[in-house]
């Protein structure tokens, strides 16, 4: 069987077209076989009817001849034994039957000059018998008229019977020859019908079997093509490729799976790259946040020292010069610290903006991934509909097989009626039923293959759904990270504004220090003002430290999100 399949030519075209062609070919072969078988059976039936008509004609002729003999005998009895009402009634009844049989025979032999010529003697005989009945037997007669009537009637009866006897042998031989010819024609028709039935049955078995083998080979190669790619994908080989080319639905399925594999591989590579970038950014952000927090703690310590110095200035107004110098030095240190913090906040702002940009790029990448996944899922759903169409065509093949089985059953019934002459026809009918059963088995096998293929497609759709769900979760995490970066940027801007206020306050402190140098009388008031400003500055520093801690926690959260994203990428790979 495998060698035969290898020798068979390959079909090109869509599966549905091949299936329609297969059904049309099977239908044409079945219809042609049925027509030829019906025509042959009709010919046998016609010959059988002709034989029955010839036999019926011969039977009617025998009945006509018997009635003719009976009429002649009754008339001879009447002229020999005398008038009898019973015999006259019997004679009248025989004349009626004679006329009926002759009318039927005359209608049956219409157009046959030979038989019309032969049966013209029976027409003359009926005329003679009828005239004798009307002239001598219709009314009663006495024994005195018996000799006169006998002398007149007997010669007519004898001549009539001699005329009938002269054509009887020829009519019998003619009818017998016709019967024999009809039997020979019937036997020839039966023989020819048997041969035609045998040949057509062989064609009905071989031709559909060849087309079924072609279709089965094509389906098996297409399924193997798709299954090889699916096995390669299951093994993690998303770059699987082969050199086989088809032009049907299986090629579309294979192309869709190939595009899906390429898209998945590109998405995995892109996702891994984005995960590495986000991880790197998160690490930098976390490091910058820790550095910023350390600077804020140092600034807070500096503020504490500055507060102590302000308090000392209030207590030691006598050492105003030295205190003023210390305050000026502290103001310069504060100015330097503010400038350093401003630079650090600018760095944090740049990192936050980069994080926002990366998160937006990640959102676009994941959105593109979701669109590709939905597109591939729709293609696979389209394949499920095409498999449904193929299943309906397979159901059509089952219906044709059922009709073929019914035809074979009818043929078996007709063969049983034909008796011994129908034995060969019965064997052919059994072979047709076997073919119908094999067709059903092939159809069931094809359905099983399509069911397995449909199950594989359902598994692919479920994998797409799971992948889409994970992508949506990743989008949600990316949105959360984007919001965190935005919060960081906003809070960083607020800190920058406060640093500007702090810078202005430091300038005011420097101006106050200059005024202290020129006016000692205002030292206490300036010290008190400086102390108030210092408390305000301390509150700002505390608030900034608290926000910096929040910024550090957000950076740690971003770092954890980046690790989770990278882990998801490894899991998908």
What would you say this structure looks like, in words?
With 573 residues, the chain is mostly helical. It folds into 2 domains: 16-207; 268-312 and 321-380 and 454-572, no CATH class. The chain is built from 9 helices and no strands. α2 (15-81) runs parallel beside α7 and α6 (249-315) packs antiparallel against α9 (523-572).
In percent, how much strand structure appears in the residues?
under 5%
The tally of helices reads 9
The proportion of residues forming helix, as a percent range, comes to over 70%
Amino- and carboxy-terminal Cα gap: 43 Å
Order of helices and strands: HHHHHHHHH
The low-pLDDT segments are 4-9
The count of β-strands is: 0
Given helix and strand content, the structural type is mainly alpha
Number of domains: 2
Largest beta-sheet characterization:
none
Average pLDDT score: 75
- Approximate shape: rod-shaped
Family: Belongs to the methyl-accepting chemotaxis (MCP) protein family.
Pfam families: MCPsignal
Domain Methyl-accepting transducer: 288-524
Keywords: Membrane, Transducer, Transmembrane, Transmembrane helix
């Amino acid at each position: 069987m495998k060698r035969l399949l290898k020798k068979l030519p390959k079909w090109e075209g869509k599966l549905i077209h091949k299936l329609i062609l297969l059904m049309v070919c099977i239908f044409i072969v079945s219809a042609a076989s049925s027509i030829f078988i019906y025509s042959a059976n009709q010919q046998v039936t016609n010959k059988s009817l002709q034989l029955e008509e010839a036999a019926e004609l011969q039977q009617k002729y025998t009945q006509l001849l018997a009635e003719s003999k009976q009429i002649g005998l009754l008339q001879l009895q009447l002229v020999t034994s005398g008038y009898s009402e019973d015999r006259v009634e019997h004679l009248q009844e025989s004349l009626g039957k004679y006329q009926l049989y002759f009318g039927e025979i005359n209608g049956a032999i219409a157009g046959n000059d030979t038989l019309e010529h032969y049966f013209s003697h029976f027409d003359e005989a009926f005329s003679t018998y009828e005239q004798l009945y009307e002239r001598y037997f219709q009314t009663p007669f006495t024994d005195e008229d018996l000799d006169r009537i006998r002398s007149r009637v007997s010669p007519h009866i004898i001549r009539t019977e001699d005329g009938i006897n002269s054509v009887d042998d020829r009519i019998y031989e003619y009818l017998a020859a016709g019967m024999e010819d009809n039997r020979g024609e019937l036997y020839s028709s039966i023989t020819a019908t048997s041969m035609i039935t045998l040949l057509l049955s062989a064609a009905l078995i071989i031709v559909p079997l060849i087309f079924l083998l072609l279709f089965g080979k094509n389906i098996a190669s297409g399924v193997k093509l798709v299954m090889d790619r699916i096995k390669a994908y299951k093994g993690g080989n998303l770059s699987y490729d082969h050199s086989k080319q088809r032009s049907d639905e299986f090629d579309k399925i294979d192309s869709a799976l190939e595009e899906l594999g390429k898209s998945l591989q590109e998405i995995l590579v892109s996702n891994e790259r984005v995960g590495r970038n986000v991880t790197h950014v998160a690490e930098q952000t976390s490091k910058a946040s820790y550095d910023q927090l350390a600077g804020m703690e140092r600034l807070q310590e500096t503020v504490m020292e500055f507060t102590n110095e302000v308090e000392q200035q209030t207590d030691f107004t006598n050492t105003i010069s030295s205190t003023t110098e210390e305050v000026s030095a502290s103001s310069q240190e504060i100015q330097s610290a503010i400038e350093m913090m401003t630079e650090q906040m600018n760095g944090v702002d740049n990192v936050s903006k980069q994080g926002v940009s990366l998160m937006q790029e990640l959102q676009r990448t994941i959105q593109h991934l979701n669109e590709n996944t939905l597109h591939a899922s729709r293609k696979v759903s389209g394949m499920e509909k095409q498999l449904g169409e193929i299943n309906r065509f397979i159901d059509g093949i089952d219906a044709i097989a059922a009709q073929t089985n019914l035809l074979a059953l009818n043929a078996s019934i007709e063969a049983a009626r034909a008796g011994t002459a129908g034995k060969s026809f019965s064997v052919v009918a059994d072979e047709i039923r076997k073919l119908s059963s094999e067709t059903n088995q092939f159809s069931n096998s094809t359905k099983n293959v399509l069911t397995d293929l449909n199950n594989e497609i359902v598994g692919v759709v479920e994998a797409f759904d799971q992948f889409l769900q994970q992508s949506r979760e990743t989008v949600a995490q990316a949105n959360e990270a984007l919001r965190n970066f935005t919060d960081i940027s906003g809070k960083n801007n607020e800190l920058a504004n406060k640093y500007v206020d702090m810078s202005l306050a430091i300038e005011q402190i420097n101006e106050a220090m200059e005024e202290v140098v020129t006016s000692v009388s205002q030292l206490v008031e300036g010290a008190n003002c400086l102390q108030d400003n210092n408390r305000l500055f301390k509150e700002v520093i505390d608030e900034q430290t608290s926000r910096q801690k929040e910024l550090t926690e957000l950076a740690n959260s971003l770092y954890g999100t980046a690790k989770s994203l990278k882990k998801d990428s490894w899991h998908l790979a």
